[in-house]
Design a protein that fits this description.
This protein is mainly beta and 862 residues long. The chain has six helices and 47 strands.
C-alpha cells in the first residue's frame, strides 16, 4: 500500500509539473534598430481591457521572460524608455513557449524611413506626434552647424513657453547648464515630449531633453573632424571685406567594457573647438578729432572674435545585479572668448573677454526593487568659475541708436558650487503607471566680485548732444562689490498615467515649486491630459491643461544682493557735465537700490491645448492643435523713486525724486501679464520617395505688458500702459528638418526656417521722464510698435558613408565624408534694428546673420 501511494503521488506530481510547463509563457529579447540590446526596459502583457496581466524588466543581456500566463489574446506593451518610442504589438498565447523579438524605434523625425513602417498611434502622454525627437545617428544626416544639436533644434521651441531664465536643458533627467558630453555621445534630443508632464517645471515647448549614450559591453567609438574656412564663405552683408575666419572642431567618443564578466562598462567623450570668428561693426560715431570737436561718420570694420572650447567626459557603469545599476561620471569644460559683445553699433574698444570653467561629478543609481517598482537617484555636484574682463579700461560712452564706445565696464568674477538632486520612484500597478519624486534643481552657494561700471557710463540722447558734450545721465558705482549668497530651488511631483480603456488614457499630475528670494510657499501646479483613440486607432484626440511656475532666471538674485547701497554704492546723475570735474566723488550722491517688492510673488502660467493627430498613411502623420497660455504676476521692474511729472513731461525742466535719500530704486514686481494664442500644424513621415522628415507651422500672437524682470516701463507710475506685442512675438514660423530622396546615394539632409519679423520699440532717445532710462516713446505710440524684417534660411547636407567591412549594425566600420551649405540662397537676414528717432540709423538694421557658409566633415565609426 505505501508503494502504491508513493507511485500515485509521483504520477500526480509529474502531471502537475507537466501542466505547469504546458502553461503559456513568453520569452523574448528587446533591441534597438542596430540590434543592440536595451536593458532596463519594462515589458507588460495587457488584457484586451487594458489590465496588466504580467510585467517584467529586460535583463542586462536584453532578454525577458513571462511565465504561468493564461491563454488568449493580449497586447505586449513596452512603454517609452530611454529615448525609444513606446511599442505595442498583439500577441496570441497558447500552451507552450512563445518567442518574440521586439525592436524599439527611436522617436525620431526619420524613423519612418530608417527603421521601417510607422507604428500605430498611441494614447501614451509621451507619444504625442508633435514631439521633435532626433537621435544622434539621424542628426548625422542633417545639416548641423558646428555639430550644435541644441542650436539646430532650438527653433522648434516656443519662447512664450519659457520663463525669465534661459531654455531649460534636461540631461539624463537632471537640469543642467550644458550637455556635458561631446556631440557624438548624445543618443537623442527631444522637444515637447509629454507637454503637461508634472516631472518638469516648464511645458514641453520650453525645455530640451537630452539622453546621452550609455556604456557598451563591446568596444565602439567615433571620431569626427569639422572644418570651415572663409575662403568658401560669402561675405557678410555689412562687411566691406571678408574677414579671415576659420573653424576647426575635433570630436569623438569611445565606449566599451571594463574588466571581464560584462558587468562594467565605460563611455568617454572629448571635443576641442578652435574658432577664429569675426564680428562686423556698423555704427555712426567718432572717426577723428577736428577743430570743433569729434568728427562723426560711419564706422564699418571687421573685428576678430576668436574663441576656444575644450570638453571632456567619462562615465563608468557597473551592474551589481540585473536589478541594481550604478553609474559614476565626470564632466569638464573650459572656454575662452575674445572681444565678446562687439558688433552692430558696439565698437571694438567696448568689447570684453570671457573665460569659464565647469566641473561636474555625477552619481546615478537605479534600483529595480520589484518588477513593478523602480527607484532612481541622480546627484550632480557642479563647480563653475566665470571671469569677465573689459578690453579697454575707460569710461563707457553710449549714444542712443548710434554707437557704444569707450570701455565695456563689465569686469566681474563669479564662482558657483551647486548640487542637483533627482529622486524618482516609478510604480506600475494594473492600469496605473505612477511616477513621483523630489528634485533640487539648484542647491547653490555663489560668490561674486563685481567691479563693473567703476569708471562710469555717460549716455547721450543723440550725436548732436554728444558733439555738444551734453549727456542726459551719468552712472557709476563703488564699494567692495563682494557678495556671498545662496540660490536654492526645490520641486516635488507625482503623476499617474491611467489607462481607463484601451482607447482612453488619462494623465493626472501635481507639482510643487519653491525658490529662495520669493516669499510665497503655495506654488502648487496641477497638470492633466487626456488622449482618446476613436475608431481604428488612426486618429488620436488630445487635450490638456496645467499650471507652470516661473523662476527669477539666471543669476538675478545677485543683483539684489549687491545693490543694497552698502556692498555697492551705485549713483545716477542726471544732466551732468562732460567730463566730470576733477575730484568728483559719487559717494556724495544718494545711492541707487535694487530690491524685491514686499508683495512679490512667483509668476505662474496657465497653459491649455486641444489637438488631433491623424495617421494618413502608415508613413505619414499630421497634427493640428490650438495652444493658449496666460501668465499671471509676470516679473517686471519699476523705479519706485521716480520723479512725479505733470501731464506733459516733455515740458518739464527738472523734478526731484520723492525720497531724496536714494536715487533710482529698481523694484522687482510681479504685476505683469502675458497672453498667448497659437495654432500649430505639423507633418512627420515620408512623402512618397522624395522626402522624409518633420515640418511645423505656427501661427500665433503673443502679447504682454512686460519685457522681463529687468524691463522698465516708460512711465514708472503707469506700468500697465505697456501692453503690446511681446518681445518674442513672431506671428508666423515654419521649421523643417528631414531628408530629400532618402536612402539613396544622392540623398540630401535639409533644414529650413522661415519666420516673420520680431517687433521692436520706437523711442525718442530723450529722457522726458527724468528717470535716467532714456526709454520715452513718442506720444500715442505703444510698446513694440515697429516691425523688423523676417528670416529665411535653407541649409543642405550631402553625406556619404563608406563601409570598410561587411559587418552590419554596431559591428560595422564606417568612414563618412560630408559637405554642408548653410544659408544656401545667401539671403540677407537683418538683425538689430534701431528704433531711436534721434539716430540717423532709425528704422535700419545694423547687423545681419551670416551669409552662405560651407562646412566640411569627416568621421570614422567603429
Amino acid at each position: 500500500m505505501p508503494l502504491r501511494r508513493l507511485l500515485a503521488l509521483f504520477i500526480a506530481s509529474v502531471a502537475s509539473l507537466a501542466h505547469a510547463q504546458n502553461l503559456p509563457s513568453v520569452h523574448g529579447s528587446v533591441v534597438d534598430p542596430t540590434g543592440a540590446t536595451v536593458p532596463g526596459a519594462t515589458v507588460r502583457l495587457e488584457s484586451p481591457t487594458g489590465d496588466v496581466v504580467s510585467q517584467t524588466t529586460v535583463d542586462p543581456a536584453g532578454n525577458f521572460t513571462l511565465t504561468n500566463l493564461p491563454a488568449g489574446t493580449f497586447a505586449l506593451d513596452v512603454p517609452a524608455f530611454s529615448g525609444f518610442a513606446s511599442h505595442t504589438q498583439p500577441l496570441r498565447l497558447t500552451a507552450g513557449v512563445t518567442t518574440v523579438k521586439i525592436t524599439l524605434d527611436p522617436e525620431s523625425i526619420n524613423q519612418q524611413i530608417n527603421v521601417g513602417p510607422e507604428q500605430s498611434l498611441s494614447t501614451d502622454p509621451s507619444a504625442n506626434r508633435d514631439t521633435v525627437s532626433v537621435t544622434g545617428s539621424e542628426m548625422k544626416k542633417l545639416p548641423v552647424f558646428d555639430q550644435d544639436f541644441i542650436a539646430t533644434l532650438t527653433p522648434f521651441l516656443d519662447a512664450s513657453a519659457g520663463s525669465s531664465g534661459p531654455v531649460t536643458l534636461i540631461v539624463d533627467g537632471v537640469e543642467m547648464k550644458s550637455t556635458g558630453v561631446s556631440a557624438s555621445a548624445i543618443q537623442e534630443v527631444r522637444i515637447n515630449n509629454d507637454p503637461y508632464s508634472a516631472e518638469f517645471n516648464r511645458p514641453g515647448r520650453g525645455r530640451i531633453e537630452i539622453i546621452t549614450k550609455p556604456g557598451s559591453p563591446n568596444f565602439h567609438g567615433e571620431a569626427n573632424f569639422i572644418v570651415r574656412d572663409a575662403t568658401f564663405n560669402a561675405k557678410n552683408h555689412f562687411s566691406r571685406v571678408r574677414p579671415p575666419e576659420s573653424r576647426r572642431i575635433y570630436e569623438g567618443h569611445l565606449s566599451g567594457p571594463v574588466g571581464h564578466g560584462g558587468h562594467t562598462s565605460f563611455i568617454t567623450s572629448a571635443s576641442y573647438r578652435q574658432q577664429d570668428t569675426a564680428a562686423v561693426v556698423n555704427a555712426i560715431g567718432p572717426i577723428g578729432i577736428g577743430p570743433n570737436g569729434p568728427i562723426i561718420g560711419p564706422i564699418i570694420e571687421n573685428v576678430l572674435t576668436p574663441n576656444r572650447n575644450s570638453q571632456y567626459s567619462l562615465r563608468v557603469t557597473h551592474d551589481f545585479s540585473p536589478s541594481h545599476r550604478l553609474s559614476l561620471g565626470y564632466n569638464f569644460e573650459n572656454s575662452t572668448s575674445t572681444n565678446a559683445g562687439v558688433g552692430g553699433i558696439i565698437l571694438p574698444e567696448a568689447g570684453y573677454n570671457l573665460s569659464s570653467r565647469e566641473d561636474d561629478a555625477i552619481f546615478n543609481d537605479r534600483l529595480i526593487i520589484t518588477p513593478n517598482l523602480i527607484n532612481q537617484l541622480q546627484i550632480t555636484f557642479e563647480k563653475d568659475e566665470d571671469v569677465t574682463q573689459s578690453v579697454t579700461n575707460a569710461q563707457s560712452i553710449q549714444v542712443s541708436g548710434s554707437f557704444i564706445g569707450g570701455g565695456a565696464q563689465a569686469d566681474v568674477a563669479k564662482s558657483e558650487n551647486t548640487i542637483h538632486v533627482n529622486e524618482i520612484v516609478t510604480w506600475s500597478h494594473g492600469r496605473h503607471y505612477i511616477r513621483a519624486g523630489v528634485q533640487l534643481p539648484q542647491f547653490s552657494r555663489r560668490a561674486v566680485d563685481d567691479r563693473t561700471n567703476r569708471l562710469g557710463t555717460f549716455k547721450f540722447s543723440s550725436l548732436a548732444n554728444y558733439a555738444g558734450n551734453t549727456p542726459y545721465v551719468f552712472t557709476a558705482q563703488q564699494g567692495p562689490g563682494r557678495g556671498l549668497y545662496w540660490i536654492n530651488e526645490f520641486g516635488a511631483f507625482i503623476q499617474d498615467q491611467i489607462k481607463l480603456t484601451p482607447k482612453v488614457q488619462l494623465s493626472l499630475g501635481l507639482r510643487y515649486d519653491w525658490q529662495t528670494f520669493l516669499p510665497d510657499n503655495n506654488n502648487l501646479g496641477p497638470r492633466i491630459s487626456v488622449a482618446y483613440a476613436p475608431g481604428n486607432g488612426k486618429t488620436i484626440l488630445r487635450t490638456g491643461a496645467g499650471v507652470f511656475y516661473d523662476r527669477t532666471g539666471g543669476d538675478f538674485p545677485a543683483t539684489v544682493k549687491l545693490h543694497d547701497g552698502i556692498v555697492l554704492h551705485s549713483a545716477q546723475i542726471q544732466n551732468p557735465g562732460f567730463p566730470l570735474p576733477p575730484g568728483f566723488n559719487i559717494g556724495n550722491i544718494p545711492t541707487n537700490l535694487v530690491r524685491f517688492d514686499s508683495h512679490v510673488r512667483t509668476p505662474y502660467a496657465f497653459g491649455y491645448s486641444v489637438g488631433v493627430e491623424r495617421q494618413l498613411h502608415k508613413t505619414v502623420t499630421v497634427t493640428a492643435a490650438y495652444r493658449g497660455q496666460v501668465q499671471i504676476k509676470s516679473f517686471r521692474s519699476r523705479d519706485a523713486n521716480a520723479p512725479i511729472l505733470p501731464p506733459n513731461p516733455s515740458l518739464a525742466a527738472n523734478y526731484l525724486r520723492p525720497n531724496l535719500n536714494f536715487g533710482q530704486v529698481q523694484q522687482i514686481e510681479s504685476g505683469g501679464r502675458t497672453l498667448l494664442n497659437a495654432l500649430d500644424l505639423s507633418f512627420r513621415g515620408q512623402a512618397g520617395r522624395w522626402f522624409s522628415g518633420q515640418a511645423q507651422y505656427t501661427l500665433s500672437t503673443f502679447d504682454s505688458n512686460t519685457g522681463g524682470i529687468n524691463a522698465f516701463p516708460q512711465n514708472q507710475y503707469r506700468p500697465n500702459d505697456e501692453w503690446g506685442r511681446a518681445n518674442q512675438d513672431r506671428r508666423q514660423r515654419v521649421n523643417l528638418l528631414g531628408n530629400i530622396n532618402p536612402d539613396h546615394w544622392l540623398s540630401l539632409g535639409v533644414a529650413a526656417t522661415l519666420y516673420s519679423g520680431l517687433p521692436y520699440d520706437e523711442t525718442t532717445g530723450n529722457d522726458y521722464y527724468h528717470t535716467g532710462l532714456g526709454n520715452a516713446r513718442p506720444a500715442g505710440v505703444g510698446r513694440n510698435a515697429l516691425q523688423a524684417g523676417g528670416v529665411a534660411s535653407l541649409d543642405l547636407l550631402y553625406n556619404h558613408d563608406f563601409r570598410l567591412t561587411k559587418a552590419k549594425g554596431d559591428k560595422a566600420k564606417i568612414l563618412s565624408a560630408g559637405v554642408s551649405a548653410f544659408n544656401v540662397l545667401n539671403r540677407t537676414n537683418y538683425t538689430n534694428y534701431i528704433g531711436t528717432l534721434s539716430s540717423p540709423l532709425y528704422g535700419q538694421p545694423t547687423a545681419a546673420l551670416a551669409g552662405r557658409q560651407l562646412q566640411f566633415s569627416m568621421g570614422f565609426q567603429f
